[in-house]
Amino acid sequence: MSKKDILIAYLLRLGDNALVLGQRLTEIVAAGPELEEELANANLALDYLGQARMFYSYAGELEGKDRGEDYFAFLREEGEFRNLLLVEQPNGHFGDTIIRQVLFDIFYLLQLDALQSCSDERLAEIAAKAIKEIRYHLRHGRQWMIRLGDGTDQSHQRVSDSVQHLWMYTGEMFATDALDDAMRKEWDGPDLALLKERWQAEVAQMLDEATISLPDGDWAADGGKQGRHTEHFGYLIAEMQHLQRVHPGLSW
Amino acid sequence: MADKNWPLYEVFIRSKSGLSHRHAGSVHAADDEMALDHARDVYTRRNEGISIWVVRSSEIVASDPAESSALFEPATDKIYRHPTFYEIPDGVENL
Question: For the segment B49-73, what is each residue's pLDDT rounded down to a tens digit?
Answer without folding.
Answer: 999 999 999 999 999 999 999 999 8
